[in-house]
Structures are given as structure tokens and as C-alpha cells.
Specification:
The chain is an alpha+beta fold. 50% of the residues lie in helices and 19% in strands.
């Protein structure tokens, strides 16, 4: 055997001694456990992401819903402010009844809007940082300003001391201008900071009740009063009238210049209806019923006071305490109301009739 054959045999022997390596595999139960674990981890991650996204969406929807309600409330409130400004600066050919009715509508609307603001379901962050509470305060300021302005503006048309009433009106309008200041500097800023921090795409609405904040200044208010007083239909008109008299217990209507037979009764009473024919509320309006005789005896007289009669309204006063005169004897009956301060026409303030009492 030569050297080359020997080397070949050695090489073949080594090759025969080498065995292929077997791959090591994890046990089947362990492999299944790992697969299940990975699947669970993936599911948990997906759920966490979904829940987080859902919470974010729910929060965004809550802010959008809230700001939508705020926008609607402010839109209606600002419309009231626009109407009020027009009424004050350009009353046109109006009258007291129209002004009173308009102011009544403005107050009623502001009360309703304030109630809606108080009932809002605000996101927690807006409540915790008092942002929503300031929105409610804004609407309260607007309601209080209008409520106090209403009687002051009507009173200004008849008050000679314009300085005092002008200050009162200025204070009431101050509530309205302050509402705009609070809304812009507190609510808008606070709400905007919160939605930016939360990265929520929602618009915080703008609002302005009075376009001209100087409307509340003393000089502007003096001009408003002067303009209103110069409007012909806004001049004060005072006047009350006796419009109906009913005698009880007969339920008999008494008319001027007529003669009536009435039942003698200790329940004798006269129901006197008085109408305010002017454009001003009249307070403490007297109603006097007098019953006398032709024989010259001392007449009986009873006075009843009506606390207040609003313009165009009728109030009925019950006058009791008069005793029937002698049976069959003619008695003069006089029913009179007013006159009230500033009344120029008094022809319809009284009624005269003749009554004869019977058994």
C-alpha cells in the first residue's frame, strides 16, 4: 500500500465517523403556550389602543356637543342684544306699549337662556376649572341687566332728574357690557386652553351682546334718554275713567243720568270698573262712591284705593259700607275716580245717577 492509498483510507474513515446534527425542537406543549401568549399580548394591545381611541372620541364628542349648545344659546342671546341696541339708539316711531312689550320679551328670553345654561352637561375639565360656571355667570349678568333696565327705562321718560335715572340705566347696561368682558377674557380663554391641551378639534364661539360697549357710558345714556323723550308717541299721557258700575245684590248696571230701583239690603255694594286710558301705570287710584238725598241730609261717602292700573288695563274695585236711603226716596249716586297726576281730560272720571230703594 503506497502512501496515497493510506491517506485516502484515513480520509474515508473520518468521513464515516461524522454523523449529521439533529435540529433541537421545543416541546409541542411549550410551543403552543408561547403561541397563545403572543396572541393574548396582541389582543390586549389592540384592546388598549381601541379603548384609548374610543375614550378620546367620546371626549371629543362631549366637547363638540357642549360647544354646540353654547353656540346656540349665545346666538339667541346676541340677537336679543342687537334688538335692544336698536331700540335704544333708533326707536323710530314707537310708543310706550311697544317698548314695554319688547323689554318684556327680552327679559323672558334671557331667563330662558340662563336656565338652559345652568342645565348644560359640561365636560369635567370645564367644571373643575370653573370655566362652565363663568358661562352661567355671563348669562346671569345678561338676565339681571335686562331685568333692572326695563323699569328704569320706562321711568326715565317721566323723570325730570335725568342724572339719577341715567346712572341707574348706565349701571344696568354695565351688567351687559361686563357679560361680554367675562365671556371673552375668562370663558373663551379658559375653554380654548383646555381643548388645545386635550388636542380636541372644537371651536369656542365668539359672543357680543352689545356691539358698542360705550352704550353704557353716562354720556351715551343721556343721549338715549333725550332721544326717547323727544319721540312724540313716547310722551307721557295720564288718564283714568269710570267705565262700568254694577249695583249689588241686584246685579244692575248703573249708567250716567239714569234712574234705578234698587233693593234695600245690608249687602249693598257697587262694583266700579276703572280703565287706565293713558300710557303710564297709575298707582293709588282713588274710587269714591257718594250717596246723598234731595232732602239735604248729609251724604254718605266711601273711598277705595286701587293700588295700580297698568296702561290700557281695567281694574274693578268693590265699594261697600253704604246704607240704603229711605224707601221710595230719590237719592243721588255719584261714582268718581281720579284725577291722577298729570291728567288733563277729566270728563269721563265720574258718573251720576238717581236711585230709589225698595223693599
Amino acid at each position: 500500500m503506497n502512501n496515497s492509498d493510506a491517506a485516502r483510507n484515513i480520509t474515508q474513515g473520518k468521513q464515516r465517523q461524522r454523523k449529521p446534527r439533529q435540529k433541537k425542537l421545543l416541546p409541542a406543549p411549550l410551543l403552543r403556550l408561547i403561541v397563545v401568549f403572543v396572541a393574548v399580548v396582541v389582543i390586549v394591545v389592540v384592546i388598549v389602543v381601541a379603548v384609548t381611541a374610543s375614550r378620546g372620541n367620546d371626549e371629543a364628542v362631549a366637547y363638540q356637543r357642549y360647544m354646540g349648545s353654547v353656540t346656540d344659546i349665545l346666538k339667541q342671546s346676541d340677537a336679543v342684544g342687537t334688538k335692544l341696541s336698536a331700540l335704544l339708539t333708533n326707536p323710530g316711531d314707537t310708543n310706550r306699549k311697544t317698548i314695554q312689550a319688547s323689554l318684556d320679551d327680552y327679559v323672558a328670553a334671557s331667563k330662558q337662556l340662563e336656565a338652559r345654561a345652568k342645565a348644560l352637561q359640561a365636560p369635567s375639565a370645564l367644571v373643575q376649572q370653573n370655566v362652565n360656571q363663568f358661562f352661567v355667570l355671563v348669562m346671569t349678568f345678561r338676565r339681571e341687566g335686562l331685568e333692572s333696565l326695563e323699569p328704569e327705562l320706562i321711568n326715565a321718560l317721566d323723570t325730570q332728574d335725568s342724572d339719577v335715572v341715567a346712572q341707574q340705566i348706565s349701571d344696568s347696561l354695565g351688567y351687559l357690557t361686563n357679560s361680554d368682558f367675562l365671556y371673552k377674557t375668562v370663558f373663551v380663554k379658559g375653554a380654548t386652553d383646555i381643548v388645545k391641551e386635550k388636542n380636541i378639534a372644537v371651536t369656542v364661539p365668539a359672543s357680543k351682546f352689545l356691539q358698542d360697549p360705550d352704550l353704557a357710558s353716562a354720556s351715551q345714556v343721556q343721549q338715549i334718554i333725550a332721544q326717547l323723550k323727544s319721540t312724540g308717541n313716547l310722551q307721557a299721557v295720564h288718564g283714568v275713567a269710570v267705565t262700568k258700575v254694577m249695583a249689588q245684590p241686584d246685579n244692575q248696571q248703573i249708567k250716567n243720568g239714569q234712574t234705578y230701583n234698587l233693593t234695600a239690603s245690608d249687602q249693598l255694594a257697587f262694583l266700579v270698573s276703572v280703565t287706565n286710558q293713558g300710557n303710564m301705570s297709575e298707582k293709588n287710584v282713588p274710587v269714591v262712591v257718594t250717596l246723598g238725598t234731595d232732602a239735604g241730609g248729609k251724604p254718605q261717602s266711601v273711598t277705595v284705593t286701587i293700588p295700580e292700573i297698568k296702561p290700557g288695563k281695567q281694574v274693578t274695585a268693590t265699594v261697600q259700607g253704604l246704607n240704603p236711603t229711605q224707601y221710595g226716596e230719590e237719592a243721588d249716586l255719584t261714582v268718581k275716580t281720579g284725577p291722577v297726576a298729570g291728567e288733563k281730560v277729566t270728563d269721563n272720571n265720574s258718573l251720576d245717577a238717581t236711585v230709589i230703594f225698595k223693599l
